[in-house]
């Protein structure tokens, strides 16, 4: 049987991590910025995920800087930032390819945007639950746990098979929208983590930061309920239970986390990495989505709005490192 041909469009940290695994079992082309791809000349190193670090030799995958390299692919995995989705959709439309397109992006509406630009094409929603950072040039470290979820569809079967063969936990989801919304709930911590300038484990270990996240998630839960949009279980607890766990004293939270959460001591959010590298963040597609949805139903989400504003301030610089009590006071004041 011919090997599956997979193009990763927007090969940054997540794209390179997935592509590196898949390269052992499929023909993989990583399409991205020269700044990332130039670091792969000596191979691609994968670490974390409770597996030993290993290097995938450079001759196991192809690299390209233009979307034309996706021509002839069976699957195109879209891992660009949300702000680049429209451009990626136009580029794929110009190719005239019949490849199945899979959106592995943050936010709630990227799949709809891709479908609108690619009529007649199979475009599937998917969700990557874990955190991946480029910890060193050419090295991509996974710091948290979970399984990739792909929208239930017959066309997804070959990709699910090759991901499983590559050791990437992956599963089919009947209600991928609920899964994406639950991922957004978790991703609301990205901004808190970025402003803290701490590793995830250290940040989540401090109750003041967790209270900031709980405030964000409370507004999101209210907005989703007003819209009649259900959530699925992403992680060890349902969304409503997670909010209570976040408010537990530090000693209690640490015991719960030790038993239920797998976050290694090197993990940081992708938003932290964006600020660190001077790149625009996706805060408008996380906190901003909560604010917009709340407004549709006559509600307000002042905590998420203020957190988004603080991240935008950090994008412009100079960057402030917020302590937990400082950030909590700022967000509490925003509630009025």
From TrEMBL:
Pathway: Cofactor biosynthesis; (R)-pantothenate biosynthesis; (R)-pantoate from 3-methyl-2-oxobutanoate: step 2/2. GO terms for cellular component: cytoplasm. Its EC number is 1.1.1.169. One of its GO terms (molecular function) is 2-dehydropantoate 2-reductase activity. GO terms for biological process: pantothenate biosynthetic process. InterPro entries: 6-PGluconate_DH-like_C_sf, 6PGD_dom2, ApbA, Ketopantoate_reductase, KPA_reductase, KPR_N, NAD(P)-bd_dom_sf. It is an enzyme of class 1 (oxidoreductase). Residues 176-314 form the Ketopantoate reductase C-terminal domain. It catalyses: (R)-pantoate + NADP(+) = 2-dehydropantoate + NADPH + H(+). Residues 6-153 form the Ketopantoate reductase N-terminal domain. Keywords: NADP, Oxidoreductase, Pantothenate biosynthesis. Belongs to the ketopantoate reductase family. Catalyzes the NADPH-dependent reduction of ketopantoate into pantoic acid. NCBIfam families: apbA_panE, PRK08229.1. This is 2-dehydropantoate 2-reductase. It comes from Kitasatospora viridis.
């Amino acid at each position: 049987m011919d090997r599956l041909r997979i193009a990763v469009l927007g090969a940054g940290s997540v794209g390179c991590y997935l592509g590196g695994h898949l390269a052992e079992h499929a023909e993989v082309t990583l399409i991205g910025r020269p700044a990332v791809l130039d670091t792969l000349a000596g191979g691609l190193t994968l670490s974390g995920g409770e597996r030993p670090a290993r290097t995938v030799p450079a001759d196991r995958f192809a690299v390209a800087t233009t979307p034309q390299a996706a021509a002839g692919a069976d699957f195109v995995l879209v891992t660009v930032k949300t702000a680049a989705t429209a451009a990626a959709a136009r580029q794929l439309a110009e190719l005239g390819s019949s490849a199945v397109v899979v959106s592995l992006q943050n936010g709630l509406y990227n799949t709809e945007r891709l479908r609108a630009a690619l009529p007649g094409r199979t475009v599937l929603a998917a969700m990557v639950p874990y955190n991946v950072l480029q910890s060193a040039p050419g090295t991509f470290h996974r710091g948290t746990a979970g399984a990739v979820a792909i929208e239930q569809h017959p066309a997804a079967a070959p990709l699910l098979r090759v991901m499983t063969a590559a050791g990437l936990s992956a599963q089919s989801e009947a209600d991928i929208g609920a899964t994406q919304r639950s991922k957004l709930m978790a991703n609301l911590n990205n901004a808190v983590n970025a402003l803290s300038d701490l590793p995830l484990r250290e940040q989540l270990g401090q109750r003041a930061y967790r209270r900031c996240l709980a405030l964000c998630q409370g507004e999101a839960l209210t907005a989703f309920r007003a819209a009649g949009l259900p959530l699925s279980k992403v992680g060890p607890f349902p969304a409503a239970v997670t909010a209570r766990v976040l408010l537990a004293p530090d000693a209690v939270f640490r015991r719960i986390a030790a038993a239920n959460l797998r976050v290694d001591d090197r993990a940081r959010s992708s938003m932290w990495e964006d600020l660190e590298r001077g790149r625009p963040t996706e805060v408008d597609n996380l906190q901003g989505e909560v604010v917009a949805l709340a407004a549709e139903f006559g509600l307000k989400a002042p905590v998420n709005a203020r957190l988004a504003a603080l991240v935008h301030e950090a994008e412009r610089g100079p960057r402030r490192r917020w302590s937990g009590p400082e950030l909590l006071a700022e967000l509490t004041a925003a509630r009025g």
